[in-house]
Design brief:
With 198 residues, this protein is mostly beta strands. It has one domain: Jelly Rolls (Sandwich). The protein is 9% helix and 45% strand. Strands 3, 6, 7, 9, 10, 12 and 13 form a seven-stranded antiparallel sheet that branches. Strands 5-4-8-2-11 form a five-stranded antiparallel sheet, with no helix packed on it. A two-stranded antiparallel sheet has the order 1-14. A hairpin with an 8-residue loop joins strand 12 and strand 13. 25% of the residues are buried.
Length: 198
């Protein structure tokens, strides 16, 4: 009987520990993608930042920000190249990605997603890549502070706004005069997947 209790306690500890390393997956997550051409600048360090103001509706909802590198093919993703952003604290959080461009990569796809419910503002996308001396040099990115009148001009988006997902240009901004505001409601988690760092 003592062994049975020990087994139950050990199982409970394992289940609780496992629950802390998982996150919920939302099937209706909204994302937008910036394609960054590498123009032959391979095997060099790069850095990407985006600034986010978050008002999640619950503890499960948050932005998911990551980058992958792609070869010449339409969707020829380099599997080992996925990097999740690290994040700083503050009213406006900075999500950052640091990596090295792959030898056969032609571009970087920078994904920004709203996973769950709440109100999120996105502003000030910055991209730098090392020059021949290894020094990071900031590069021009079209519509990097979302100042264009057309929402998410120059970005690929996965879905159109609906009554439960609204995307606006907002005067609340960290840089420039406006940001992209995403309001998501009534999204329900569909399952559990492994932990994502941000």
């Amino acid at each position: 009987m003592k062994n049975l209790y020990l087994l139950l306690i050990t199982s409970l500890i394992f289940v609780c520990a496992s629950a802390q390393t998982e996150q919920f997956s939302y099937p209706d997550a909204f994302y937008f993608v910036k394609e960054i051409p590498l123009n032959g600048l391979t095997e060099r360090p790069f850095h990407i930042d985006i600034t986010v103001k978050e008002n999640p509706a619950d503890s499960l909802s948050k932005p998911r920000i990551y980058a992958v590198q792609v070869r010449k093919g339409k969707e020829d993703i380099i599997g080992k190249s996925m990097i999740y952003a690290t994040v700083t604290n503050g009213d406006w959080k900075t999500y950052s990605i640091d990596g090295i461009t792959e030898k056969d990569a032609t571009r970087i796809w920078f994904y920004t997603a709203v996973n769950g419910n709440g109100e999120f503002y996105f502003d000030k996308l910055q991209y730098s890549i090392a020059d021949a001396t290894g020094t990071l040099q900031e590069q021009d990115v079209s519509n990097q502070s979302f100042e264009d009148k057309k929402i998410l001009n120059g970005y690929f988006i996965n879905t159109q706004p609906s009554k439960d997902l609204q995307v606006f240009l907002s005067p609340v901004a960290c840089d420039g005069k406006q940001s992209v505001q995403v309001i998501s409601a009534h999204q329900k988690p569909a399952g559990v997947r492994g932990l994502v760092r941000n």
